[in-house]
Every structure is written in structure tokens, then in C-alpha cells.
Amino acid sequence: MCYTLLLSTDSPADLSMHNDSLIAFSRELPESGDERFLEYRFKWFVGSRTGCSCGFRHLYVDSIDLGFNEPVDWYPEEADDIDATFRFIAIVRELVAAGASVDCVNAWAHGDEPLQLAGTVDVDLRDTSNQAFRFYENHRFLFS
User: Fold this and answer.
1) Which residues pair with 108 in a beta bridge?
2) How many CA atoms does the CB half-sphere of 62 hold within 13 Å?
3) Model confidence pLDDT, tens digit, residues 16-56
4) CA atoms within 13 A on the CB side of 86
5) In what helix (H) or strand (E) does residue 79 lie, and over which residues does it extend?
6) How many CB atoms lie within 10 A of CB 52?
7) Which residues contact 59 (CB under 8 A, 6 or more apart)?
8) How many CA atoms within 13 Å lie on the side-chain side of 135?
9) Is 119 helix (H, G, I), strand (E, B) or coil?
10) CB 34 within 8 A of CB 107
């Protein structure tokens, strides 16, 4: 089992130009059907160094009350996961600054069961630093 991160935007920009060893954008989407939660025309699968989307900062669905926060010693995270998440949110920030609309869905692989979203999170990038951003399991994010 693993995470799947999907992003959509109304920007036709080629996000694969950002691909490196920590993050990879692909127009080839998994066959999960989770893209039905995305609002915009251009859809991307966002992979990490692991190939799937597990190599980002995540909070389990039952832990989202911890909110957006910078990494802390008492909650160990892989350095590459932190760096990959910083890269992701910086790319989203560039898209939004250029006037694009962006959303994403972070889903724990659910096998044959269709994904049930636990909620939508409105992310105001003026109030959320790159260092504090992290994904919440089974949530949709709408960036502004």
C-alpha cells in the first residue's frame, strides 16, 4: 500500500520540467479513479524518490489536528521527504503566483474500495510557509 498524489491545474505548463531525484510529474495517471476529485483540466501524477507518492511529508487522516507545521524532533521525518515536499509546494506557489488555479488529492491506496475524501483543505499560501506544508491523508487541497 502507498500514497497517491494527484495535481490538477488550469495552467498548460509542462510540470515535468521540474522532475529530479526527489519529485516527478507525469501525465500518466494511476487507474484509481481519484482524479474525479480534481477540478482543473491539466492533471498530473506526482511521484517521489520512491516511485509512488510516499516520499513526501504526510499526516495520517486521524492526525490532521496537528495541522501545518515545520518539522520537529519529536516527529521524525526523512530529510528527502521534507525536501521533496518543499519542492512540491514551491512549484505550486509558482503556478499560483502566475495566476493558475491548482488543487491536489493525497490518497492512501485503497485497493478495490473507492476513495472517500475526509475533506477539502483551503491552503492560503500567504499564511502557509513551504517549511510548514504537509499532506493530509485522503484530503483534497485547494491552493490560493
Assistant:
1) 3
2) 0
3) 999 999 999 999 999 888 999 999 999 999 999 999 999 99
4) 9
5) helix 79-97
6) 17
7) 66, 134, 135, 136, 137
8) 29
9) strand
10) yes
C-alpha cell at 37: 476529485
For 50-68, the three-class secondary structure string (H helix, E strand, C coil) is: CCCCCCCCEECHHHHHHCC
Q: How many other C-beta atoms can be found within 10 angstroms of the C-beta atom of residue 12?
A: 8
pTM of the full structure: 0.94
Task: Provide long-range contacts, Cβ within 8 A and 24+ apart, for 64-67.
Answer: 64/118, 64/136, 64/137, 64/139
**In the beta sheet, which residues pair with residue 141?**
104, 121
Grid cell, residue 130, equals 513551504
Split at pLDDT 50, 70, 90, the class of 71 is very high
* Tens of pLDDT, residues 90-123: 999 999 999 999 999 999 876 677 888 999 999 9
Alpha-carbon distance of 7 to 23, in angstroms, equals: 13
- C-alpha span between 3 and 25 (Å, rounded): 15
Rounded to whole angstroms, the Cα distance separating 131 from 125 reads: 12
The number of C-alpha atoms within 13 Å of 68 and in the hemisphere containing its C-beta is 18
